[in-house]
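Chapter summary example: a protein plus iron/sulfur cluster.
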Amino acid sequence: MTLSELLKKAAAGERLNPDEGLLLYSEADPAVLMEIAHDLRLERTTPGVVTYLVDRNINYTNACTTDCQFCSFYRRPGHPEVYVQSKHQIGERVEELLAWGGTRILMQGGHHPDLRIDWYEDMLSWLKTTYPEIELDCFSPSEIENIAMLEAMTMEQVLERLHRAGLDGLPGGGAEILDDDVRARISPKKTKTAEWIHAMRIAQALGMVTSATMVIGFDETWEQRLNSLTCLRDLQDESLAAHGNGFTAFIMWTAQLSETNSLGRSRHRQKYGADYDEYLHTNAFARIYLHNFTNFQASWPTQGLDTARKALFAGANDFGSTMLEENVVSQASAYSEREPRMSVYRLHAQIRLAGYEPAQRDSRYNTVRDFDRIMSKEELAPVSIPTRLNGVDESVANFIPVTSQ
Ligand code: SF4
């Protein structure tokens, strides 16, 4: 098939095979791909509206034994800065989110060598009982695999227990590039492709909310990026056919390099990372190739606001979230390090600046609130709410020391 025939096929929203995808991704003019991606976004999601979520990340522990080369967030067991958050600390963060009208927490941490499954179950069931209106999208396939290894259980058993305890969704963190040659270079101790996909398959079969992610800039080839997208697309096909519950969205960003991670300090540093044009190009291609995905998020915390607004014309229909707190990518010089918080008012302003109307959604992309007029700062400001933390132990006794080395 010629490139011009392929462009017509892409514009018609048809499925491309991997060879066709590779040709389109590597040979087509990125500006043309962005136009096609934008047209597909207008056909598949509500034109004129850009959605967003009010949520916050809660990084419950930074202890990790996995040593990913791109990570600036984790601390090895025994490091003086290792922490595990208590119920009281996590509850305070949830209450701040509720004051902002938030609906979800995204709780993620390192691969803690001592936290057992009953710690996770206890935290989830306490959160579900105390804050029933908050969706709990927590952990990632690699954290699930870590718990399974510690407990000598299968990932299915772990996910079933955590789901019963209150887990609503499994976010798609830790995918990076789903190609084991890349993973062996940048994160050799982390979940392999088949296990990452398997964890998501189980979560989707359990009816949980899941998202798909990709991070570019690890000196991977175009073929390896395509392999990653093909893995996601195949599972989406499988899950939608089996029970109708697939990934809710695709989110991509670029590797964040800094002196605080091994890739950033590498003498080969120039091989790593990807610029904003490559981000927009790849986002547009993903909208075309992942024909069975509906929602694509622009990632302002890693790409900055200007590029995130441009992504709304390169296939994205969603501006991500307010992210009241983020500690993982922000520790590697991402945009969010300079601007860690996005108020709802500012987020609205960004969406309107791009020419769209904002709509608040939940994690399944149901509309929570839409806005047909410009809201004032006061109307979108947080409100004070009564605490539900009376009687919850504030002491550091809730911190769990990391004993393993
Ligand atoms: S990315 Fe996750 S698994 Fe890897 S070192 Fe950081 S915290 Fe650990």
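Key point: The chain has a mean pLDDT of 93.
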